[in-house]
Design brief:
CATH topology: D-Maltodextrin-Binding Protein, domain 2
CATH superfamily: Periplasmic binding protein-like II
Number of domains: 1
Structural class: mainly alpha
Strand order of the largest sheet: 1-3-2
Radius of gyration: 15 Å
CATH class: Alpha Beta
Helix content: 40-55%
Largest sheet: 3 strands, antiparallel
Order of helices and strands: HEHEHEHHH
Length: 110
């Protein structure tokens, strides 16, 4: 499994529709759009966590062909969220390291 940044939600769903990617993480409203396109919503952040963040969307084909991979992705998302909740400063450092914004810009938003 390989994770790539596929761009905005709309671009990610378009890439799924074209078969270029097998799964994506999208904002909650875009998860609904993914469902309209015939994809399966595997997880909704609002059902797993105390605050909404993003949904994870994939195709029925991916679920059927790679169920173990799907489970690992969901477990990784849960583990990452727990890390964020328990290690706020470490998460802020990580975001500042990958964000295009100036260092420190994300601190006030987390």
């Amino acid at each position: 499994m390989k994770f790539i940044a596929s761009g905005p939600n709309e671009t990610s769903l378009a890439a799924m529709k074209q078969g270029l990617i097998a799964a994506t993480i999208v904002a909650p409203l875009w998860a609904l759009e993914g469902k309209k396109l015939g994809f399966n919503v595997l997880a909704k952040a609002c059902e797993l966590f105390s605050w909404p963040t993003a949904g994870l969307v994939t195709s029925a084909k991916k679920i059927k062909e790679r169920p173990d991979e799907i489970k690992r992705v969901i477990k990784a998302a849960i583990k990452a969220t727990r890390y964020i909740l328990q290690n706020r400063e470490g998460y802020i450092q990580f975001i500042n390291g990958v964000a295009e914004d100036r260092p420190g810009d994300s601190h006030g938003n987390l």
